[in-house]
Give the backbone structure.
Amino acid sequence: MFMANKERFLKIYANLPVNLRNEIIAVLPDVGPITWNVAYLEISNDTKLGKKILEKLSNFKII
């Protein structure tokens, strides 16, 4: 599931206009606002936070 979500996220991110990548896409209770750029860094580096972000985006039907 993680890899499928990661692939979907990366495809969406690659097609985003550069100016939209600074927009907030999620707010995590312990972390705060997450932009597309922050999400990309966390997800591409397979961090614990990246996994939480992917889960949120999947639950919100963003990816």
